[in-house]
Amino acid sequence: MRFMVIVKANEDTERGVMPTEQQLAAMGAYNEELVKAGVMLAGEGLHPTSKGARVRFDKDGASTVIDGPFAETKELVAGFWILEVSSREEVIEWVRKAPFRNEEIEIRQVFSSDDFGDAMTPELRAKEEEMRATVEAQHGA
User: Fold this and answer.
1) Coil, helix or strand for 118?
2) N or C: which end of the chain has fewer CB within 10 A?
């Protein structure tokens, strides 16, 4: 099972305040533990929303670009991990070890092809697997 672990933004991350050496070392040690356990697929921090944009699509498919920054920091994302574990309980245990204080971390399961049932036809499944293989080949994963 794959899970996205979402680190919420706060006023500091939205102001672009960089982590201290101590915070980077603690995060590095935690990431190393995830890697050694074989559960980490990806993990990154994100720049503040002042450097981002949103694209809003209308009912007719037309799009509008909205430049950041965005309000309501409690709803914004500052970073993430993608972890592959055997259960929801296991990902919760990993997240409890994260070196955060006074923060909130959100955990969301990532869909797999099997979750879509009969709508994921053998043809669609084959195309999905082909695209994943292409992405892995392009990025050396």
Assistant:
1) helix
2) C
